[in-house]
Amino acid sequence: MLFSGLNPWLFIAGSAEGGTVAFIGAEGYIKQTAVHPQIFPIRIVMANFINLLYAIIAFVAFYLFMNPDAFGPSMLMVFPGLAIIFIFVLGMANMSAVIHLHVRDFQPVQAIFMQGMFFATPIVFPPEMLRDQGFAFIYHINPFYYMLEVVRSPLLGTGLPALRVYIMAVFLAVIYFLMSALLVMKVHKNIVFKL
Q1: Where does residue 1 rank: exposed (0-12), middle (13-18), buried (19+ CB within 10 A)?
Q2: pLDDT exceeding 70 applies to what percent of the chain?
Q3: pTM summary value
Q4: CB 49 within 8 A of CB 11
């Protein structure tokens, strides 16, 4: 349970962290070439996504040894879950990159926010623990819960998340990505002057 929750979380947190320096770190490329700046947050997310895939392969090998009875066709639903989380995280990287252009102290603020969200998201504990204590609203209003659940539940082979979890995850991913892409397009011409 811990391994299956931490891997997607590290992808989310690492991409958000890397997103803050996506434009700043590529200053030379942006100033000297005509490449669209959207490529730099994508590069950060892709690198973290490859790491996530390696971690999932390690998880599957370990889980096959520990719990072979859990394996079944429902585990294939991890692929749509990975697509959903990728789109959401790309939106996060875009937002982080643009905000960091305007607020250079955004990176430590975001790190503190992500650390707080780590403890508010059922990663190292099951969501039932919050629900049984009457705090289900904490994970119901938490977008990271939906992103993790569409990956973690299929990986564990214990069943698929409810349809509303998938609907909410897709909705959040698409809305967040579209907002961030519009923001990148809006500042596209001025990125050189902000660096």
Answers
A1: middle
A2: 98
A3: 0.89
A4: yes
